Amino acid sequence: MKSNMLLAFLLSFILLVSLPVWGDSTNDDNDQTNTSGSNTQITGGYTSTTTNNNDGQTNTTTSTTSNTTTTNGSDVPVNSANSPSFSAMSQDVCSTGISGSVSTLGLGVSAGKHVRDLNCERIKLSKVLFDYGMKVAAVSILCQDERVFEAMQMAGTPCPFEGKIGKEALEQWDKYDIERPDYNSYVSKLENRSRIDEELAEIARQEEAERLRKEQEALAKKIAEEKAKLATLKAQEELNNIVDNIIETDLETEEKRIINVHK
Question: Does the residue 93 lie in any domain?
């Protein structure tokens, strides 16, 4: 708050002490009017006269030169505003300097600040913990970065969870998945996988339906063939019965005829 008030005071002071610059010439009757910027006018009248007297002959030469230069406000050079320099060299800090400046006619402003590099801080803290022998803690602080967390999951070595490591830690992360540093990307990944699983399940269902249809068609064809075979066998059996009946009838008739002949 104090820094903002100080900056506002400085800007007000600069605006008050800044005065417009007018360009004009003396002893001329030219008028200038400008509503968009400062003008600089340069006017001049130069006259030279040369007289030569040779053997009673007089030569007179007169030359007059007038120059007028007008400069609009857009062509007037603006004072530069230099941005403050920030450096973290030779210091064991994780910060980056950012600065900028803006300059206009009669006013220039520059500012700068330091920005913390949280990733750099995380790496330094992990190194210090590892040097102290706290390996699990060193890995845990690196796991606060979602890229490290996801890489550990993909490698089959999940990040520690409140003292638990390995399979037990994985079960806790699955149970309290909202605490994962990569929760948003994790949810998006689950949605994509669910969509892909549904598509694969639909493909498998269609393939299974096609397989069952083909099996039913094959079974129906086989049943039709068996029925045709049975019908053929039945017809053959009926034909055999007819033949047997005919033969039996013929034998009885022949037997009766023989008996009648002997009588």
Answer: yes
